[in-house]
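Async update (no meeting this week)

Hi team, since we skipped the sync, here's where things stand on the single-chain job. The sequence we agreed to prioritize is pasted below, unchanged from the tracker. I ran it this morning and attached the output directly underneath so nobody has to dig for it. Comments welcome in thread, and please keep replies under the output.
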Amino acid sequence: MALATTSGFALSSNMANAFANKCSPPQTPVLAFYSKTSEDLLFNAQDPIEIMCQAGVRCVGLHWALCRNTLVTPFRQGEAEALPPDRFRIRVDTAGLLPGFYDIRVLLDSGTGAPIPGVCTFGYRVPEMPLANTRPADFKQFWDDAKAKLAKIPLDAQESEMVSYSGTQINQYNTQYAGLPGDYDPTGHVTNDVESCKVSFAGPDGGRVYAWLAKPKGKGPFPVMLVLPGAGFNARPRPLEHARHGYLALDVQIHGQDVDLPVPVYPKIPGYYSDWKYEPASAYYYYNIHMRVMQAVNYLASRSDADLTRLAAVGGSQGGRLSLVIAGLDPRIRAIVPCIAHNANVPYYKWSEACNGVIQQPDGKRSATGPKSDGMSLTGAPPVADTPEMRCLAYYDTMNFAPDIHCPVMMNAGLIDPVSPPSHVFGAYLRIASTDKSITPLPGLGHDWSSEFDRRAWRWLDKVWARQAAAQKQ
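Output:
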């Protein structure tokens, strides 16, 4: 995951590096935003919307500019009302606001030279946000054909020798290698003794899929957790924290690379960051990514110590995206926790790029040299261009898997997340078919981890399994 932080995701998507407590940009520690009328900064009929900004430094004034989410050109701006405790009140008239998300971009005059920038994102009548319908008529058939191809590949699972971990060893591993604090959820421990090994199984392209397995010591069966990674070609950590919470957990390297190669050895595979192929749609890079995730579920299903009635998929960023995808593709997934899920609502993303002047050069590179717009002329769903790229991405837009998701879902969204903006994440959430779904807005958080969200997600999964077990007995 390309972040200026070493934070990890335990339940959602841990990373193979040391833990650090620096938050992801664009969070500005000296500026804190809140509202007295809406803690989560989602508003319905209030007029005006009132946002408070507390400055953490001496200051002179605050200028604000209002933009549609992820757009850089403001359609309204003004000076905030200054209050004695270095606090400012921003009033946003809702007349003319369209359903969706908005960014308040501020410049704090600290009286010492360059102003301090900050951003606050809020939602207005979000359930009414217009969404483009790009799901192809043959969407289900396309992915059913992929599953049929995968079914012809023998699993050929291989496992290394188990290694034991307990207590402080898990804490030390988390801090040094899994991007986590040593122990952020001690009341959630189910066991103090876990074991872990490397596994691999056949992939869709003639190669292997590699993963770390971790589980409580014993024969089980255990509840199961598929841990899906954030973006990037990086080593993966052993999911020891998941095993300590009682799960048989599998953390997958979805690029077909090994899980423990040193970072300089990992090659960037063409088609992931560049050299995209859009025709046919099955040539797109994520086709094999999705196949590897499906094969990971097949591997878990092959284990006698796995309780498939309690199979969860979790992940952050790309991992959040893939947990939504696999829940739409495989009904064996019984619950998902997609965090800061990437690549939803592609039409909005492409429209906002155009509003920001992004144009694609003949060599495929993008530059922000085109004309810019504030986007306020768009009152309905974003337009969808009839191009090979958009026709292909319709098969991979996370929003288009959502209508096939019927299991319980607990999501979150960082409201100032520049990688997975709320306009994207909520696009997928609103389309999810499950009646048992919730999303937690994270005001002031970017593309980052929340320990309290993780703790609540662990408890939520316990309740989901208890409800499902009770329903089976009736």
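Quick observations from my side:
The CA atoms of residues 414 and 442 lie 5 Å apart.
The chain has two domains: 31-128, 139-473.
Reply here if anything looks off.
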